[in-house]
Design brief:
With 420 residues, the chain is an alpha+beta fold. Helix content is 19%, strand content 27%. The strands form eight sheets. Strands 17, 18, 19, 20, 21, 22 and 23 form a seven-stranded mixed β-sheet that branches. Keywords: Disulfide bond, EGF-like domain, Repeat, Signal. One of its GO terms (molecular function) is carbohydrate binding.
C-alpha cells in the first residue's frame, strides 16, 4: 500500500514537472513568436499571407526603402478564417490560430480599417485592440454565440499584405511638381504642380492654355518659377503694351545732338556740325577711315558698312540687335544696293530689312526712309504680314509676320564719311 502511494506521488510529481517544462517551452515559443512578428521585414519585403495576431498584440510592418505597404486582406474575428481578398483572390486556409469552421463573429470593416491605417506607408504599427473593438465583431446568424466568443478570448486579426514599389517611383512630375498618393486605398499617384503649370504631369505650357494669352505687341513667356507673364515688346509699355516708350526723355544724343523718335518709338539723333555716329559721339576732327570690327564695306570705298547676325530673331529683335551695334536694320534704298549686298549674303539664308508698313498699311517705310523705289512680291501683304524680309533664294523682298524668325543685316556708315 505504501509502495502504491509512493508511486502515485512520484507519478503526480512527474506529471507536474513535465507540465512545467512544457509551459516553459510554451512561454519561450510564445516570446519568440512575438519577437518575430515585431521584426522589421527589411530583408523579406514582399508579401505575408495569413499572419495572425491576438487581440492584445502590436502589429508592426516595415517595408524596404522605396516600398510601401499594400494590404491585401484582413479579418478580425473569432475562429476566423481569412476572408477572400478583393477580386476573389484567395490567400490560404488560415491554419494559424483559431479552429476551422464558420466564424462565430467577424468585423465587416476589417479590411477597410487596416487599409486606412497602413496602406501607402513604408512603416505601420498599431495594437489590434486599439484599431478593433469586440463590439464590432458581428455575425447575425450566430448572435447567441457572440457572448461565448468574447468570453473564450479567441478573437484574432488575420492579415495579408504586400510590400510594393512606391507608385511615385515611376510617375513623372515635371517642373518641380511633387508626386503624392491621392487615394490611399488604390494607391493612386498624382502630381501636385507648382505655380501655374498644369496637366497630369505638370508639363502643360501655361502660355498655351489660351489661344491669345497676351495683347498685341507682347509675348507670353514662362518665368523661372513656372508662372506665365506677358512681356511688352521692346519700345512699348502699359497694361496692353500699346504705349510707346519715349526714348528721348533721357536724351541719348551727345554733343548737342537732337533726339526724335522713329516709327517704332526708338531714338534717332540728328548731329550738329563736326559730329557723327549713332549718338553723335564721333568727333569728325579725328574721323574713322574703316568699318568697325565685324562690319564689311560694300562696295569698297562707299563708306557703307554691313554686318550679318549669326542667329534668327523676330523683326523688332533684329532692330534692337542692330541698335546695340550702333547701326540700323538694313535699308536697301536702291536696286543696286540690294544687288551688291545680296551677292555677299548667303543665298540659303533669309534676312530682315528695316522696312515695315506697321504705321500705314501698304506703305512700307524704313526707319529713316522710303521703300517706294523697290518692288515687293505681289500679294504677300497679309493682314498680319507687316515686316519686309529679303529672301535671295527666290522671293526677293517679301512681307512676313513680324514674329517670323529671320537673320538681321545691320548697316551703318563710316562716321564722318558723309561730311568729308
Amino acid at each position: 500500500m505504501k509502495l502504491q502511494v509512493l508511486c502515485v506521488i512520484v507519478f503526480v510529481c512527474g506529471v507536474s514537472c513535465m507540465n512545467q517544462n512544457i509551459f516553459r517551452k510554451y512561454l519561450v515559443s510564445r516570446q519568440q513568436s512575438l519577437l518575430e512578428r515585431h521584426h522589421k521585414h527589411d530583408k523579406d519585403s514582399g508579401s505575408k499571407e495569413n499572419d495572425v495576431f491576438d487581440d492584445d498584440e502590436v502589429v508592426t510592418i516595415t517595408c524596404g526603402e522605396g516600398e510601401v505597404i499594400r494590404v491585401v486582406n484582413a479579418n478580425y474575428g473569432s475562429q476566423a478564417k481569412p476572408r477572400k481578398p478583393r477580386k476573389n483572390r484567395y490567400h490560404g486556409k488560415g491554419s494559424k490560430g483559431g479552429k476551422s469552421g464558420k466564424d462565430l463573429c467577424s468585423d465587416p470593416q476589417s479590411l477597410v480599417k487596416v487599409e486606412g491605417e497602413c496602406n501607402g506607408k513604408q512603416t505601420c504599427e498599431f495594437t489590434v485592440s486599439d484599431l478593433f473593438d469586440e463590439d464590432d465583431c458581428i455575425n447575425e446568424e450566430e448572435l447567441e454565440a457572440r457572448s461565448w466568443s468574447k468570453s473564450s478570448n479567441d478573437i484574432q486579426l488575420w492579415l495579408d499584405y504586400q510590400c510594393i514599389p512606391h507608385p511615385c517611383l515611376n510617375f513623372y512630375c515635371a517642373h518641380e511638381g511633387i508626386c503624392v498618393l491621392v487615394d490611399m486605398i488604390d494607391l493612386t499617384p498624382q502630381c501636385n504642380c507648382m505655380n501655374e503649370w498644369t496637366g497630369a504631369h505638370c508639363d502643360d505650357n501655361p502660355c498655351e492654355a489660351d489661344a491669345n494669352p497676351c495683347p498685341q505687341k507682347s509675348t507670353c513667356s514662362i518665368n523661372s518659377d513656372g508662372s506665365a507673364s506677358c512681356c511688352c515688346d521692346d519700345g512699348y509699355t502699359g497694361d496692353q503694351c500699346d504705349v510707346l516708350v519715349d526714348a528721348c526723355t533721357v536724351n541719348p544724343c551727345q554733343n548737342g545732338g537732337q533726339c526724335s523718335l522713329d516709327s517704332q518709338g526708338l531714338p534717332v539723333c540728328t548731329c550738329v556740325s563736326n559730329f557723327d555716329g549713332m549718338f553723335c559721339d564721333v568727333n569728325c576732327d579725328w574721323p574713322m577711315t574703316t568699318c568697325p570690327t565685324d562690319f564689311t564695306e560694300i562696295p569698297a570705298g562707299s563708306g557703307n558698312c554691313y554686318y550679318t547676325c549669326d542667329t534668327e530673331t523676330g523683326w523688332l529683335g533684329a532692330v534692337f540687335e542692330c541698335r546695340a551695334r550702333d547701326a540700323y536694320l538694313w535699308e536697301p534704298n536702291t536696286q543696286t544696293e540690294l544687288t551688291d549686298v545680296g551677292q555677299v549674303l548667303d543665298g540659303a539664308d533669309r534676312f530682315w530689312t528695316g522696312a515695315s508698313d506697321q504705321t500705314a498699311e501698304n506703305a512700307p517705310t524704313f526707319e529713316l526712309g522710303s521703300l517706294s523705289a523697290l518692288s515687293l512680291t505681289a500679294d504677300s501683304n497679309g493682314v498680319n504680314s507687316d515686316c519686309v524680309a529679303y529672301e535671295p533664294a527666290g522671293n526677293g523682298l517679301i512681307y512676313r509676320t513680324c514674329h517670323t524668325q529671320r537673320k538681321c543685316v545691320c548697316e551703318k556708315q563710316i562716321p564722318c564719311s558723309s561730311q568729308n
